[in-house]
Amino acid sequence: MRIVVLTGGIGGARFLVGVRAHARRIGAEVTAVVNVGDDVRMHGLQICPDLDSVMYTLGGAADPERGWGRVGETWVVKEELAKYGAEPSWFGLGDKDTATHLVRTTMLTAGYPLSQVTAALCERWQPGVTMLPATDDRLETHVVADIEGERKAIHFQEWWVRYRGAVPTHRFVFVGAETAKPAPGVVEAIAAADVVLLAPSNPVVSVAPILAVPELKEAVANGPAPVIGVSPIINGSPVRGMADRCLGTLGVEVSAAGVGALYGARSGGGVLDGWLVDTTDDKTDIPGVRVKAAPLWMKNEDLTAAMVASALDLAGV
Ligand code: FO1
Q1: DSSP calls for 82-132
Q2: How do beta strands 169-175 and 130-133 pair?
Q3: Which residues make beta-bridge pairs with 3?
Q4: How confident is the model over 164-190, as pLDDT tens digits?
Q5: Contacts of 282 (CB under 8 A, 6+ apart)
Q6: Strands 274-277 and 290-293: what pairing?
Q7: 3-class secondary structure, 218
Q8: Ligand 1 nearest atom to the CA of residue 50, by list position
């Protein structure tokens, strides 16, 4: 069996740990198509937070408490940059993490596309799934927000890390998405998949930028594989992160039903065939979508693998 997962950062990475565990049990292959909208250039280095969260988590090197970057991290580079007064000072690069950004930036500067750079980095981390960026092209999430009384478009990282999303926010823009092409292997993986899963990642700033790549969306929406989404909202609250702020900006209810309706049924121009919700949300009804309830708290690998089994069951594969 071939499983494709559209995913963002830490929530998606934890979901992928369960996907990998379940795939090993049933002998399936997994391809993760990862959001690049959070990517940013800082201090001359190309940072890919979601690719790195997935790679470090599956490679057993992620910091479980911070939720991003490397476990056992040190911060000498950050401290030294601060002593130079180098901006942005609100964004922290750990020393170990910096090595990843140096290798990535060197390879990108030498002309390798992000997909090949990611494959090279994964040789070290052996994530056990094929990791593909959604696109090799520039695609960045920008946020239109009021900053000190002035309406501006700022990079997603500035909105989230510097302002913690706590500024009047009007919309999210996926700069470059319209002309971006799916990275090599993405459309092929979706076309050959037995099931496509939407990880319980932020629907607005993790999954939406992936689906904003026109040929990628087309491959998912019109492909042969059933598409099953896993709700990132349990009983009215996001599993983690800022999905509530993002959904609020779009005027979408922070609920399993709200996010399911945002993705929409494939039959109605959306992407979903099935929507897996938590048992506390078992009354959820999305027109045109099969809804199933299962425990969705990803407390450990076994519980997460059980969630994945429920998603495959819903897909009928
Ligand atoms: N999150 C923070 O809250 N503060 C930081 O200084 C920060 C630095 C950082 C560096 C590399 C990286 O891969 C991620 C980093 N993050 C940081 C996490 C990141 O901002 C977001 O949580 C994700 O982009 C959302 O998935």
Answers
A1: HHTTPSPTTS---HHHHHHHHHHHHHHHTT--HHHHHHHHHHHH--SSEEE
A2: unpaired
A3: 30, 195
A4: 999 999 999 999 999 999 999 999 999
A5: 293
A6: parallel
A7: helix
A8: 26
